[in-house]
Fold:
Amino acid sequence: MLVDRTVFVTGASSGIGRACAQAFGAAGARLLLCARRTDRLARVTAELDAEHHTFALDVRDRAAVERALAALPAEWGEIDVLVNNAGLASGLGPLHEGDPDDWDRMLDTNVRGLLNVTRAVVPGMVSRGRGHVVNIGSIAGRETYPGGAVYCASKAAVDRITAGLRMDLLGTGVRVSTVDPGLVETEFSVVRFHGDAERADTVYAGMTPLTADDVADAVRWVADRPAHVQVAEVVLLPTDQAAATQVHRTAR
Ligand code: NDP
Ligand code: 8X3
Structure:
């Protein structure tokens, strides 16, 4: 059902977004891909055997999002599936000692960025009477953990936005889903710790995390259900994780 569908993945230069590009491409979809780092996007498309169109985009920049979507070549204008994946954590520590620039980065990307892209894409879906928005939420949107107040709040906002959008789109034929993973080993923790790869490694030490491909597989499955089936929520955890703060680790 994904053959020749146009799938737009934000944040496709790395991790889950890159894996979604590969999974949807392998399923025969046409890929619209964006991120800020175009060199990394080029590396992703070099691995793809799928029709694709890429562009540089910072989802935080509302005017740029509107311009980029309005300027798409006609053959790329009808988006069937939007994967709102672009996102990040910045910092991990007590709120009262936190850096407000970290808060802005997370809220501007994970919440405002997702809203910017959704606002630019969904009206076309409504006018065509079909479409699917798949948001990448997180276990962090369902549970708060120490040091993660703002990231968790941003993902809780994604959860509420997903539910609200589904209500707003009832009767239009447009579906809305969220895929909420637990620990996935990507560049996420390196970004969170501002490039400290050693600290990032400790997040996944002694346990087997999800891979980006595991998440992409779930996203592809969600998008590939028949038109009358709307998967509202998928929570995907590693077997070694039972809750945001409960992780089984063995010494290695
Ligand atoms: P990565 O850091 O590997 O990938 C993040 C992607 O988001 C990159 O492609 C990055 O591209 C893009 N991105 C970040 N900021 C922007 C921006 N302002 N505009 C456009 N693109 C942007 O991490 P993940 O793949 O793990 O993260 C993807 C999503 O999954 C995020 O929403 C994250 O919150 C969520 N998630 C991750 C989990 C994990 O444990 N890894 C678990 C649960 C959810 P570029 O820098 O080139 O712009
Ligand atoms: C990413 C998962 O637990 O590191 O959303 O916040 S976690």
User: Anything to note?
Assistant: The chain has one domain: 6-247.
